[in-house]
Specification:
about 190 residues; mainly beta; globular
């Protein structure tokens, strides 16, 4: 299959304090759907009601692609990620994200990846048909009211922790059907 891409990144954020991306369809880019490479303290990103499709790398990538960490705090809600060749959402060290009401499917990498030093609160997410539903590679993740199913690996915890509340469905994956700890919702 021959693919012609429209450009490198759909949205390339290199500076600024607050950035809002709303009601967008971002598809067929050869790198990232949204690349937020800011490292400044106080940076905010809001992604609401967006659709990402056929992105060669990550749908949303929070943090620089080279060495370094981000300080960006993101809110990602009511958005769909389909057929991202790497990850649907990637959060690099020191970044934080509130991810709510998202669907991530058919990613060759992870639906959501939380890297070392990053923090994520994931609520009402559907992570299906990915290589890995949730990849926690050293971050801190809290998971509530979410479904992770039909992935090669449901939850991969190579470092850090994933705390899941009792209202999640993590089942029907090739492996990785457990979180670090499961607690009753308060």
């Amino acid at each position: 299959m021959v693919r012609t891409t429209l450009g490198l990144n759909g949205v390339n954020i290199t500076s600024g304090l607050k950035v809002n991306v709303q009601d967008c369809v971002i598809f067929n880019f050869s790198n990232m759907g949204i690349l937020d490479s800011r490292t400044n303290v106080g940076a905010k990103l809001s992604v609401v009601d967006c659709k990402f499709h056929q992105i060669t790398l990550d749908g949303v990538h929070i943090g620089p692609t080279a060495a370094g960490v981000t300080n960006t705090q993101a809110q990602i809600s009511r958005s769909n990620f389909m057929s991202c060749n790497q990850n649907g959402i990637f959060i690099k060290g020191n970044g934080g994200a509130s991810i709510t009401n998202v669907e991530v499917s058919n990613s060759n990498g992870s639906g959501i990846e939380v890297s070392s030093g990053a923090v994520a609160a994931i609520t009402k997410a559907s992570l299906t048909f990915n290589a890995t539903g949730l990849n926690n590679s050293g971050g801190t993740t809290r998971l509530s009211d979410s479904t992770i199913t039909n992935n090669t690996t449901g939850v991969n915890i190579s470092g850090g922790s994933v705390t899941g509340f009792s209202n999640n469905t993590v089942d029907g994956n090739g492996g990785g059907n457990a979180v670090t700890s499961s607690v009753l919702q308060k």
